[in-house]
Write a structure and sequence with these properties.
The protein is α+β, with helices and mostly antiparallel strands. Helix 5 packs across helix 6. The longest helix is centred in the middle third of the chain and has 15 residues.
Length: about 270
């Protein structure tokens, strides 16, 4: 099998071909964000046909790394390639805490490598009714943009300023309230709402509604465990939940860093 190599943005079509092999369909805008902010590692297929596998590593300062998009082509499954890619990701992470969201197939690999479950993530997608702004939420100003990384760092325990800058530059709508914010951006058929930071469930509802306001497509939001009441509330507005919750996992600490009680939704499943 070939060596693991760092991909470049022009290799993006190879990644999309690989995920198509596994029945995944990540929008190109999400892949471009992962390439801009993170590091995409891959192994070339021995038969010369694209990639055998890949993994995305997104470093956040000196304290945290998010790992995602760990994919192995079906014809190279059960040959240890997934473990090899994850071990490489952990080498890149070094002493930093590593977090990820697992699939049913990937979880056994992660547990063998020392990850422990910490919570869950539920995908919700679909048309959303009743979106509107309230007096408690307003559209972010440039001054707000400058203040968001510090608030985000309180909640995630890491410096994610590079990722936030990239996201804000492509956002359709960024809204803020006292102690919270939400970023909404378009990726293919969805308006993605994330990250979302909120000091209370009520504030989270207001931020989500304001972020979805004016969307010309269906909404997608990946809800974490911060406020469990958000899940039935959101599905009551139209978006449907995925078939099952996905476990969030961490390695190198007993829990995710920061104050995750206020962390409502990630940037992406693959980026934390």
């Amino acid at each position: 099998m070939s060596d693991i190599r760092l991909l470049r943005p022009e290799d993006l079509p190879l990644c999309r071909r690989l995920e198509g092999d596994r029945g995944w369909a990540t929008d190109e805008a999400k892949w471009r964000l992962m390439f801009e902010v993170g590091e995409v590692y891959a192994v070339d297929a021995a038969d010369g046909d694209g990639l055998a596998g890949c993994v995305v590593v997104t470093p956040y300062g000196d304290s945290l790394v998010a790992v995602g998009m760990m994919l192995v082509a079906d014809r190279y499954g059960r040959q240890g390639l997934g473990t090899r890619l994850m071990e490489h990701a952990l080498e890149v992470a070094g002493d930093r805490v590593v977090e990820l969201t697992a699939t049913r197939f990937g979880r056994p690999v992660y547990e063998r490598l020392g990850f422990r479950p910490t919570g869950s993530l539920t995908i919700a997608m679909g048309p959303m009714r009743g979106t509107a702004s309230t007096s408690a939420v307003r559209v972010a100003t440039p001054d707000d943009h400058a203040a968001l990384p510090a608030l985000d760092a309180e909640v995630t325990g890491a410096d994610r300023s590079k990722a936030l800058a990239a996201l804000l530059s492509m956002a359709e709508r960024t809204v803020v309230t006292d102690g919270g914010f939400a970023v909404a951006w378009n990726a293919g058929p969805h308006r993605v709402i994330g990250p979302v930071v909120a000091p209370s469930e009520e504030a989270a509802r207001e931020l989500i509604l304001a972020a979805a306001h004016g969307a010309d497509r269906e909404v997608r939001i990946d809800l974490l465990d911060a406020y469990p009441g958000l899940r039935p509330w959101l599905t009551g507005l139209g978006p449907a939940e995925g078939p099952s919750a996905l476990p969030t996992m961490v390695r190198g600490a007993h829990r995710h860093p920061g104050d995750r009680r206020r962390y409502v939704a990630p940037i992406l499943i693959s980026m934390g």
